Amino acid sequence: MPLEKVQALNAARLTVLRAQLTPLLETKLPITLEIGSGHGHFLTAYAGHHPDKFCIGIDLLADRLERSARKSKRAQLANIAWLHAEAGLFLEALPEDVALREIFVLFPDPWPKRRHWKNRLIQPAFLSLLAQRAGEHCRLYFRTDHAPYFDHAKAVIHEHAGWTLSDSTPWPFELATVFQERAAEGYQSLAAIKACVKSPECSVPVTTSNKR
Fold it and tell me: Catalytic residue among 59, 109, 145, 167, which?
């Protein structure tokens, strides 16, 4: 697709996203974002257990978002929303005065072949974009069942100036999702905190790793 058409398409999508976000961001609750929300099991349960937070799940697959919306509707949750959005475009659509308080990236595509590593979500440029939209001490939670991707993510986050790996941040909520149940050989988790280098609750460098 020609560059001009790509730019026009992204501009149109950005306009739609901003219009969708406007009423959602009227909330005064802290915002929790799940990137790649899958079938919505985790975030729906999380929102149900945390009525003091507003949860937004984004995904690229419309059928997943439809299933997610049905789950949260059945649960009668008013503190959750689902958006069809690419992560970078979603972050760009956020108003400058809106800061994320929590970010979940659970079982993303590991792109195992070396020639595809550039497609992995956890990359320096993306971490910089996340840091720009994250409030002070925002938590980033990452979990994968692909050991090489875990090592990659841990190394990239450790080297990034905007995030500090933390072993003092507990995993905030457990739910055996479809993807987690498929992790036959277990999974690994880490937590990182934005702008906490001088905070007494974190140290450099450390990681949190949860194995089943």
Answer: 109
